[in-house]
Model the fold of this input.
Amino acid sequence: MTSHLHAVRLLPAAGAKGESGIMGGFSKRTKDELARVMPKHRCCRRAELAGLLHGAGSLHLSQRGFAVTAAFENAAVVRKALKLLKAEFQYAPQIVAEQTRRLRQRRRYLLILDNPGDAEGILRELGIMNRGFVLEGGISPELVKDECCRAAFLRGVFLARGSITDPQKKSYHLEFVTENEDFASGLCYLMNLCKFKARMGKRKTSFVVYLKDVEMIARFLTFISAHAALLQLEEIRVLKGMREEINRLVNCDTANLEKTVSAAMSQIDLISKLIDSGGLERLPESLREVAMLRLEHPEASLKELGELAVPRMSKSAINHRMRRLREWVKKYAEEEGIIPDWAN
Ligand SMILES: [Zn+2]
Done:
């Protein structure tokens, strides 16, 4: 180990401000929530521990044998791994805090199983190691044969390797990133066995298993027991949906308004021509009334024209008179033979 590592005696308490506090994004809050979920069954506790170690761990072969180093960025998550190891194997690994200096200062916690006998035993028990062979990427089918254990395993992997974008952002996205192609394939297979329609892609030297569909993301959060995160996702989704609906209505109103305006323009055009030809005098009283209303209120909708009429008229009554006006003008134009293409 290099000198920038130093042993940590005490990890910050759960819920303390700072690394594990309320600050931070949606992804971190989701992990903080999941770190508090403790599986009831032994099978699930082991599956989750396997997910955590498989996701975050790397194996080293030294002269003494195997050693595992699992790196976590979230203090609550490393505490959970520690708790599970103690509960299942009565094993207290070495924990080291490391300050990474890439981009911004960030703390990383290394959980080290460096006692070769213990490490090997634990890996074997968790199905990560099989008769001396390490199942590098493969996920032991035995470990995830029950649905309860699949959920626990995936929760473990999500805690170690997963992230979710803030649902406030434009598109929904949940992903696992790993450098191990076999593990990514196995993970994608398991996700799809649970019907999440996951997809796999490559990003530089890493492999990404991801969900884009918000329904699937919501189902996945439910599956791994991220209930508070799910609630928040759903709330934001409803708000986003309302915003879209309002936009749709506004656009729809604009379209209607354009239709109203163009209808009014053609009515005004027709009436103006009638006036120019001296035909207004011969227009029946009821039609002349509507024609004058239209000229006085060029921007009004038919409904508004109806309200302006004395006595008031319904929208359909105004519409009916407008049609009759058009027909009357057409007939008048034909009879007079003056302006043949007026009322078309
Ligand atoms: Zn189980």
Q: What stands out?
A: The radius of gyration is 36 Å.
